[in-house]
Amino acid sequence: MSVKHHSEINFKIGLDENKVPEEMSWSAKDGGIDNEPSKAIMISVWDHKQKDTLRMDLWTKDMPVDEMKQFYHQTLVSMANNFERATDDAKMGATMRDFSDYFAEKLDLKKG
């Protein structure tokens, strides 16, 4: 199988004098996204040689704490769903979603 197309996702991070993120944006031409602002980014990369995950978590200094909690909750739910699709392990996917519900309950994120 040969690569037929390359796609890029770009992040632009504006830093203050202490190299703390003040503004962030991202672009993904294939997804129709061009310089879209964001307050937080989480990236995980699997290093298959070291069998380890490399991570980059950034957020702007004006990211509200309540939005950060919601961002983490939504990331947990997404990870549970992706895990189940990737591994076909419905039982663990459900367990991860149960934890996500518990997380949301403890942070009072579930409204209504």
Automatic annotation (TrEMBL):
Xref: InterPro entries: Motility-assoc_prot_GldC
NCBIfam families: GldC (TIGR03515)
UniProt-recorded name of the protein: Gliding motility protein GldC
